[in-house]
Specification:
Helix content is 44%, strand content 16%. Helix 31 runs antiparallel to helix 32. It has an eight-stranded antiparallel beta barrel. It has a six-stranded mixed β-sheet with strand order 20-23-24-18-25-26, with helices on both faces. This is ABC transporter domain-containing protein. Keywords: ATP-binding, Disulfide bond, Endoplasmic reticulum, Glycoprotein, Membrane, Nucleotide-binding, Signal, Transmembrane, Transmembrane helix, Transport.
Length: 1074
């Protein structure tokens, strides 16, 4: 009775469902246009109550009359079905076409037609993959990706075992079933979801679904044999439903197994496949039905399955082990060690003292007799030499002469203009305006010819501390002596010059510097003189050669100059501050200056008589040099002449006795006291030329008052004086000459000595070819012509200069090994530290980060270590300017030698050592081409950074300022490296900042070289994701195809540009200007 009762309900219900299905199918074709959105969002009650009378109800899966096919999920929000993959339609009973990889963008199958699947896909609803190409870009389960993201290395796994979501398309092979359905082949689709432990089973005839089942609490396993493989799916529960009106589900002329499926199909169920034998589906109730009607024990199937997986997700896949880099690491460390040992051996060999430098020297016969005698004697006459700077007169009409074999001493107090006058005589570059006449052997010659026959020794000794005395003088000889001279002759002249100056005994001693003293100050001064004397100059200028020396060393230096002048017929001109009496006795000519004015110019022996003639005799036993300095100083401190306003005038309300200014009162009292001893009374001096000036002095000095009358007036006066001192007008205005000093100047102008001097200069200028010297008439040779003809003044060629300067730079480098050793030790130590922390770098996201980190750290290391280049030129700036001014070499050869011996030892070898150690240790890509690209990038970056720092050291004289600018340049480049700021986030107007950053060029080149073809394996969302590193590079704003261009090319362009700019600045900017 119960069965009959149920069958009473089956027919009406089937008819209702069939009617509803037809209505929905008719309306589904225009669903979007037939049902507004508000109707779709109505609740079930609103749908029922709101529909027109006699209209069938709208589809709503929350109503008992409707259901979601294939166990689709019914949404509680809108009453619509959420269909499983491969199904669509309002009731999830319409198959989808195209491919499973298309996701939600699949077409529904048209009614009465079969699906046309995309290439590589098959099945009634196109859910089964056939080829690996079909899986390209297939989304990994659970991974959120964009439409443009495509996952590589996907494969179509056909092993039958479910990894995530497996789909199988099966043909029923039961003979009886096939016989009963001619032209309507029965088929089965079977799919499983690993995450939910569920499977889906659909039965089809003629590609029309008849019934479907959901299997729950499923497990799967696989058995691998030597001759066959088997997969087993076992599910504890099963629930099946008919599709009303379909085959065996109420279709005309067929049975209806709806109640049977609902009541008898409970589980458990199994789905088993064996390679070569097909598959079978078993369930107790289903087996009984098959046995009853078709005579088989179960449904037999021939299935084809497929699941898109990444190759690392295929069951049984084991990732290959990472290549063993131990051999590469060993070779890298061994190579770095060989480089260090080789460099050390070269330095040791180069640093050995070779006896050939100091052994016996054999001169060719044609050179042995003309070394020190081969020079052109030159007399120097100068008249009315004046110099002004900024509108202020520094020197005023200085005249004098110096002849071969004589010493001309220029004396004066500090600030008298001695060094300025010597610079003008030596034709140094001066900032101000120079006027006057200088004659050499009675001729005005060009500066270029003048410098060929002169030498100049500065007041400060600028010598390379690492060189020996012999090497210092020898390099001067090699660079400046004629190129036609043999090497043996140049060495002989070096030793001969050192012997003359008494420094041959210390030839093997190093010059030394502060903290590492080697030779004394006097010896160092004589070395400086030897560097100029070795070229056998006709005229030798020296700026205060005794400055900073004790009395004995000062006498020794002057005695050497005397020997040079008198024994070898040289003209020696030098400045001296306040020499002792035994030094003064060696002078031949003497010039005394005071405030840029000429006080005396003539023979040194006559200065005492001259002082007596003008009323200022030098006391017996008193050093005439000290007396002259005191005389000029006291005359310079005298009040101004009556033609100009007094220096200090009492303001209204002030006491005119200077009592309100203690300092000024003391100064005036002192000046008046001293003025009494040097007062020049013309009448008295004319009638008593030999009487001491002190005899007529009876002036009284002004005494200081006991109190100050007005502090306000004092402050006002001091403020006025300060403002006058700092005002521009006061700096450019020539003040009046003190009267006593003016009297000394006028006294020399009217003297007989001055008359003879001016007459001699006029005679030489008017008749330059004849000079009377007391021994007859001798023609004075033309210095420029004679030196060119007899000595061939072509100095060392550029190639020779480069070779000599390179040797000097190399010796300077290896004899002061602190910088060299620090760079090498730092490269090795930091490489060991990086190798320890970054070793065994992995091919995942963390490994990607570590690679970028080690690249960034490496660039920062070498970038900031290049700041050590600041001192390489800064320590030699003054030496370069002086040697260039003295004609040692061309700026190009000096620059090339500095570049060579800064690049090779400090900028090429350290990155090679560092890269050789860390590359294999941390496990970067073990390919030879990739390794050498890595090395090339490091070396080019180091060279570029060093060239930038070299430009700063040349352009900026202050080391501290250059260091600050260099640090800011490095920080700017670090900011735009590409790791701290993403290139894509920078506004378009400022993206060029990445292009001009050499850090960015090197960083991107290193990253692209290492990561361009690398696949990163990351376990994410429960699966192993394979991500191309190039995709992440693009996320960082790095371009995956930018190694050679623009990055490596940019590094080369930067290096060349900054190197050329450095040379141009050196050539045009770094000059000696006094």
């Amino acid at each position: 009775m119960l069965s009959l009762g149920l069958h009473r309900w089956v027919l009406p219900t089937s008819l209702l469902l069939l009617w509803a299905q037809n209505v929905q199918a008719a309306g589904n074709r225009n669903l979007t246009y037939s049902y507004p959105l508000q109707h779709q969002l109505l609740s079930p009650l609103e749908v029922v109550s709101g529909r027109p009378e006699r209209c069938p109800p709208c589809f709503n899966c929350q109503l008992d009359a409707f259901t979601c096919g294939n166990f689709g999920e019914c949404s509680k929000f809108d009453g619509q079905c959420k269909c499983p993959p491969g199904w669509a339609g309002i009731d999830c009973l319409t198959p989808q076409c195209d491919s499973l990889a298309d996701g939600e963008h699949r077409r529904q199958r048209e009614e009465g037609k079969e699906c046309e699947c995309k290439d590589g896909w098959t099945g009634i609803n196109c859910n089964v993959c056939q080829t690996d190409d079909a899986c390209v870009g297939f989304p990994l389960r659970g991974q959120p990706i964009d439409d443009d993201d495509r996952i590589g290395n996907m494969t179509c796994y056909k092993g039958g075992e479910t990894v995530f979501n497996n789909h199988q398309m099966c043909n029923v092979t039961n003979r009886k079933i096939l016989d009963m359905l001619p032209g309507r082949p029965p088929q089965v689709t079977f799919s499983c979801d690993k995450e939910d432990d569920t499977c889906q089973f659909q039965f089809w005839t003629a590609q029309v679904e008849s019934f479907y089942c959901e299997l729950r609490d499923c497990s799967s396993r696989a058995e691998r044999g030597y001759d066959k493989n088997s997969t087993f799916y076992e599910c504890d529960k099963i629930e099946c439903k008919c599709v009303p009106g379909r085959f065996i589900c109420g279709e005309d002329g067929s049975i209806d197994i709806t109640d049977f499926l609902k009541e008898d199909i409970k589980g458990p169920a199994s789905f088993t496949c064996t390679s070569g034998q097909g598959c079978k589906f078993e369930e107790p109730g289903m087996n009984e039905l098959i046995m009853t009607f078709f005579g088989d024990s179960y449904i037999t199937l021939q299935c084809e399955g497929g699941e898109c997986l990444h190759y690392s997700q295929v069951p049984g896949y084991e990732p290959p082990p990472k290549p063993d880099n131990s051999a590469f690491v060993a070779l890298s460390i061994a190579g770095a060690g060989v480089i260090v040992v080789l460099v050390s051996a070269i330095l040791w060999w180069a640093g050995r003292t070779r006896s050939s430098d100091f052994g016996a020297i054999r001169l060719p016969e044609n050179e042995s007799a003309k070394l020190m005698t081969d020079h052109v004697p030159a007399s120097l006459h100068f008249s009315n030499i004046s110099y002004s700077l900024g509108g202020k007169t520094i020197l005023d009409n200085i005249s004098g002469s110096a002849k071969p074999g004589q010493l001309l001493a220029i004396m004066g107090a500090s600030g008298a203009g001695k060094s300025t006058f010597l610079d003008i005589l030596a034709r140094k570059n001066k900032k101000g305006s120079v006027s006057g006449t200088t004659l050499v052997n009675g001729r005005a010659i060009a500066d270029e010819d003048f410098k060929k026959v002169t030498g100049f020794v500065d007041q400060e000794d600028m010598l390379m501390s690492t060189l020996t005395v012999y090497e210092t003088v020898l390099y001067s000889a090699l660079l400046r002596l004629p190129r036609e001279m043999s090497l043996e002759a140049k060495k002989y002249r070096t030793l001969e010059t050192m012997n003359e100056l008494g420094i041959l005994g210390i030839k093997d001693s190093r010059i030394g510097d502060t903290g590492r003293r080697s030779i004394s100050g006097g010896e160092k001064r004589r070395v400086s003189i030897a560097c100029e004397l070795v070229t056998s100059p006709s005229i030798l200028f020296l700026d205060e050669p005794t400055s900073g020396l004790d009395a004995y060393n000062a006498l020794s230096v002057i005695d050497s100059l005397v020997s040079l002048a008198r024994d070898y017929n040289r003209t020696v001109v030098f400045t001296i501050h306040q020499p002792r009496s035994n030094i003064v006795s060696l002078f031949d000519q003497l010039i005394v200056l005071a405030q840029g004015k000429l006080i005396y110019s003539g023979e040194a022996d006559k200065v005492t008589d001259y002082l007596s003639e003008i009323g200022h005799p030098c006391p017996l036993g008193f050093n005439v040099a000290d007396f002259l300095i005191d005389l000029t100083m006291q005359a310079g401190m005298e009040p101004r002449s009556l033609d100009s306003p007094p220096v200090e005038e009492a303001q209204p309300g002030e006491d005119d006795s200077n009592l309100a200014d203690e300092e000024r009162a003391l100064a005036r009292a002192r000046s008046r006291t001293r003025s009494s001893s040097i007062s020049l009374h013309p009448t008295y001096r004319a009638s008593h030329p030999g009487v001491d000036a002190d005899a007529g002095t009876e002036e009284s000095t002004t005494t200081r008052a006991p109190s100050i009358r007005s502090s306000t007036a004092y402050i006002r006066r001091q403020t006025t004086r300060l403002l006058e001192a700092i005002s521009p007008a006061s700096q450019v205005r020539d003040g009046p000459v003190p009267p006593k000093l003016a009297e000394l100047i006028d006294a020399f102008k009217r003297s007989e000595i001055a008359g003879q001097l001016y007459a001699e200069i006029e005679q030489v200028a008017s008749a330059p070819t004849v000079q009377g010297n007391g021994n007859g008439t001798t023609e004075l040779p033309d210095v420029a012509v004679e030196s060119s003809l007899s000595r061939g003044r072509k100095r060392a060629s550029w190639g020779t200069q480069f070779r000599i300067l390179s040797g000097r730079a190399f010796k300077n480098l290896y004899r002061d090994p602190a910088l060299l050793a620090t760079h090498y030790v730092a490269a090795i130590a930091v490489a060991v530290i990086c190798g320890f922390f970054f070793q065994n770098i992995t091919n995942d996201i963390a490994g990607f980060q570590n690679r970028l980190g080690v690249f960034f750290f490496t660039l920062a290391l070498f970038g900031f270590s290049c700041l050590s280049s600041l001192n390489l030129f800064a320590n030699e700036r003054i030496l370069f300017m002086r040697e260039r001014a003295n004609g040692y070499y061309s700026p190009l050869t000096y620059f090339a030698s500095k570049i060579l011996f800064d690049i090779l030892p400090l900028r090429v070898i350290p990155p090679l050592v560092y890269g050789g150690i860390i590359y294999g240790w941390i496990g970067l890509v073990p390919e030879v081409s990739t390794f050498w690209k890595f090395m090339l990038t490091l070396v080019l970056f180091n060279l570029t950074t060093a060239s930038v720092i070299l430009l700063l050291s040349i352009a900026v004289a202050s080391t501290s300022v250059a260091s600050l600018i260099g640090t800011l340049v490095m920080l700017f480049n670090l900011l735009f490296t590409g790791l701290l700021i993403n290139r894509k986030s920078v506004p378009a107007a400022f993206q060029w900042l990445h292009t001009v950053s050499f850090f960015h060029a090197a960083f991107e080149a290193l990253a692209v070289n290492e990561l361009r073809y690398l696949q990163l394996h990351e376990e994410k969302y429960g699966v192993n994701i394979d991500v191309p590193a190039a995709a992440i590079l693009s996320t960082f704003g790095l371009r995956a195809e930018s190694f050679w261009w623009p990055n490596i090319a940019l590094l080369g362009i930067f290096f060349g540009t900054f190197t050329v700019l450095s040379y141009l600045v050196l050539h045009f900017y770094v000059k000696e200007t006094r």
